[in-house]
Amino acid sequence: MRTQAAAQNPRPNSKVVVIGCSVGGFMALTGILSAILPDFALPVLVVQHLHPDDNGSFARHLAGTAGLPVIEACDKEQIQPGHIYTAPANYHMLLEQDGTIALTLDEKVNWSRPSIDVLFESAACALGPRLIAVVLSGANTDGAAGVCAIKAAGGLVLAQDPATAEFSAMPQAAIDTGAVDEVLPLREIGQRLAELGADEQVEKHG
Questions:
Q1: Torsion of the alpha carbons at 23, 24, 25 and 26, rounded to the nearest 10
Q2: Residue 199 pLDDT > 80, yes or no?
Q3: What proportion of the chain, given as a percentage, has pLDDT over 90?
Q4: Helices assigned H by DSSP within the chain
Q5: What angle do helix axes 169-176 and 144-152 make, rounded to 10 degrees?
Q6: ∠134-13-79 over CA atoms, to 5°?
Q7: In contact, 70 and 28? CB cutoff 8 Å
């Protein structure tokens, strides 16, 4: 019922991109985000499985390759268009219905904290059809339950073609759920997100 209510009254009003990845994901992310132009207008939330000792280095390294500002997320932070938010090590990152980020120390999900499923499922409740999800390289099944929640809520789900992933298990697990709308080689995902961002601008300005 929470998902249905969110789908009828999604907040924030623009689309949001959520991306999940694990081992092999950093290179995939840099390829995608470097292809997105600086005028990309959608917020992007990223969960990458991180070493517990990561002290913000993932966000800093990503900022060196992305064309958009990269921020390691803080609790209660309001997401902004054209910004990339990464989950800090040892915290789950959730998206609330008012467009703010929540960080929690809840138990690990799929042996991971941050967990992709936690972000995806919370975002599905918050945004419904205003959500665009992407599953990239990884060696486990984190994200598979999340893409099902997003699909049920009316969102769009993309997955990296496993043949182009350094580790194929994660995108393949998402594809196997039947909830993935588009399977794309890595080189096409950034272009597809750019198209979806442009569509959003057209929709807003009529």
A1: 110
A2: no
A3: 82
A4: 2-8, 25-33, 57-63, 116-127, 144-152, 169-176, 186-205
A5: 40
A6: 65
A7: no
| Distance between CA atoms of residues 193 and 191, nearest Å | 5
Calpha distance 47→26 (Å, rounded): 11
Are residues 111 and 84 in contact, defined by beta-carbon separation less than 8 angstroms?
no
CA distance to 64, 68, 143, 187, 204, per residue, from 200 (Å): 26, 17, 25, 22, 6
> Residue 204 — very low, low, confident or very high, per pLDDT cuts 50/70/90?
low
pLDDT number for residue 7: 34
> How many other C-beta atoms are found inside a 10 Å radius of the C-beta of residue 60?
12
In this prediction, residue 13 carries a pLDDT of 57
Q: What is the pTM of this model?
A: 0.91
142 is catalytic: yes
Helix H or strand E segment including 156: strand 156-160
Q: What SS3 class is residue 13?
A: coil
Choosing from 14, 92, 115, 142, which is the catalytic residue? Answer: 142
Residue 181 carries which side chain, given as an amino acid letter?
A: D
Confidence class of residue 10 from pLDDT cuts 50, 70 and 90?
very low
Rg, the chain, Cα only: 15
Q: What is the 3-state secondary structure (H, E, C) of 40-94?
A: CCCCEEEEECCCCCCCCHHHHHHHCCCCCCEEECCCCCECCCCCEEECCCCCEEE
